[in-house]
Design a protein that fits this description.
Elements: E1 5-10, H1 15-31, E2 35-41, H2 46-59, E3 67-70, H3 81-85, H4 87-91, H5 96-113, E4 117-121, H6 125-133, E5 138-142, H7 146-150, H8 158-161, H9 179-195, H10 197-210, E6 229-231, E7 248-250, H11 261-264, H12 266-272, E8 276-281, H13 290-309, E9 316-321, H14 340-350, E10 354-357, H15 364-368, E11 373-378, H16 382-391, E12 395-397, H17 404-414, E13 417-419, H18 430-441, H19 446-463, H20 466-477
Parallel strand pairs: 1-2, 1-4, 2-3, 4-5, 5-6, 6-7, 8-9, 8-11, 9-10, 11-12, 12-13
Helix pairs in contact: 1-2, 1-20, 5-6, 5-10, 13-14, 13-18, 18-19
Length: about 475
């Protein structure tokens, strides 16, 4: 019997990055019985890895479980909103000593596993650094889009004038009169990434202590012809680019398999089946202040009233997953008589037309797959965008940082939704949000958004599951 080949995956524990690795693990478990799967990350992802492993074994009884390696006693990638919004720490989120600790941990795991192939999260700087430094066979697996990875390599300096600088609210295509402003934004971004003293000290410290040259986000601005980058996107669903390097391989959306809502939460399944539902889910990181919740509530009241006034068929209801603080604690009342939200939505609460919950037991993707969701209100995170696109659900996007602005522009460019806060982002106001919801759900363009969303979902289905495409590339490169 031939010896099993070993695949090692190195990723941050933040779900926006890690989900595609978990999905890929599942695909490998179903297609490659002669492959051992090893995944290294920080402690918060352990439970999700165990769940993914159990799901894979349940679906494929002959598969081997995922071997998890915890990266110990080191600084995890900072996953707070302020850090994600700022490309200075994002390009080098560690101090020099923290980076050395992480690199030594990665070295330990690589030496222990002795992988035949390693896949590294494109935002996991220690993993990128050590994979290159140790000379192992490796590839990058990224949730980013073609625009994100190929933009610095576009001809005619298109990076400066053709595409909105990340983290800005500039539209695509950029109007002529805004091109100088975009050039300024790009120059500022480059300045802070290149001349950030803390990052430079960290890089120098790593080179001095372990002899490695740091591989961080700056490296993606240089051609990497011999390094394959598997990408969870497709040119069909992105801004057009003039040049795609051969080593950047679009695999299509990489989605985790999910259990049906009926199986996970039968009561929610019954409730969703009552009528069309607006699903508000702003991801795992953003939080909503009471003032913002009030603005949202006012927009929802206006939407529901408009639905009834127009005499639309059936019931319209709202499922709203609301995170009030960074750590998920309760900071303000929702249903208490006389509180700000109850004064706005009290009658809707009483009729169970609007549910505001801290957590939804079922995965967002499986909620969207029920066929009962008429609109996904999300923050423009990559996972949220792809989940809605893959299920043919129109979107209203409330971007909060960095590339979430790109996804707000993407839904408008693709004709599958609206930006819900174009003049107030990263905050939002009732008037703008209500207008966007109305256009997507009951307005004259609503049918157009629905048809276009279903059309793209069909195109994605024809391309096949992205996780299976990644698995085939892995098997072909071991």
């Amino acid at each position: 019997m031939s010896q099993k080949r070993k695949v090692l995956m190195l990723t941050n524990s933040e779900y926006g990055q890690a989900n595609i690795f978990l999905a890929t693990c599942y695909a490998l478990m179903g297609t490659a019985s002669n492959v051992e799967i090893h995944l290294a990350s920080f402690a918060p992802i352990r439970t999700a890895v165990i769940a993914a492993s159990e799901a894979g074994i349940k679906a494929h009884p002959n598969a081997s479980p995922i071997n998890f390696y915890e990266i110990h006693d080191c600084a995890e990638f900072p996953d707070n909103a302020h850090c994600l919004a700022d490309y200075r720490p994002r390009s080098m989120p560690y101090t020099g000593p923290e980076m050395v600790e992480n690199c030594n941990e990665i070295r330990r795991i690589i030496e222990q596993v002795e992988p035949d192939l390693t896949l590294v999260d494109n935002m996991f700087t220690p993993g990128l650094t050590m994979a290159r430094h140790m000379g192992i066979k490796w590839m990058i697996l990224s949730p980013n889009t073609l625009k994100d990875l190929a933009l610095p390599l576009q001809p005619k300096a298109a990076f400066f004038w053709k595409y909105p600088c990340v983290g800005t609210a500039l539209p695509f295509p950029i109007p002529w009169h805004l091109i100088p402003l975009n050039v300024l934004y790009v120059c500022i971004l480059i300045f802070f990434m290149v001349f950030n003293r803390d990052a430079r000290r960290a890089r120098d410290h790593v080179t001095e202590k372990i002899g490695a040259r740091v591989f961080d986000q700056q490296e993606f601005g240089n051609p990497q012809p011999n390094l394959k980058m598997l990408m969870a996107s497709s040119p069909k669903f992105d801004f057009p680019v003039d040049f795609k390097p051969d080593n950047i391989i679009p695999c299509g959306p990489i989605m985790r398999p999910v259990s049906p809502v009926k199986q996970v939460d039968p009561e929610l399944h019954t409730w969703l089946a009552r009528g069309l539902t607006v699903f508000i889910n702003l991801g795992t990181l953003p939080w909503t202040t009471e003032d913002e919740a009030v603005e949202t509530a006012q927009a929802l009241r206006s939407l529901l009233a408009g639905w009834r006034e127009k005499g639309e068929d059936g019931r319209l209801q709202v499922l709203w997953k609301l995170k009030q603080t960074t750590d998920g604690q309760i900071e303000y009342d929702i249903h208490e008589k006389g509180c700000r939200l109850e004064r706005i939505l009290g009658s809707e609460f009483d009729d169970d037309n609007v549910r505001v919950v801290k957590w939804v037991e079922a995965e967002p993707y499986t909620v969207l797959r029920t066929g009962n969701i008429i609109c996904s209100v999300n923050h423009g995170g990559a996972n949220s965008f792809w989940e809605a696109l893959c299920t043919g659900v129109p979107q209203v996007v409330l971007p909060v940082w960095a590339d979430t602005y790109d996804f707000a522009q993407r839904v408008e460019y693709l004709g599958i939704g609206k930006w819900g806060s174009p003049t107030t982002a990263p905050r939002y106001r009732a008037e703008e949000l209500s207008d966007a919801l109305t256009q997507v759900i009951t307005g004259r363009s609503a049918r157009k958004f629905q048809l276009r969303s279903k059309e793209l979902a069909k195109q994605r289905f024809q391309l096949g599951e992205g996780r299976d495409v990644v698995a085939r590339h892995i098997i072909g490169n071991i």
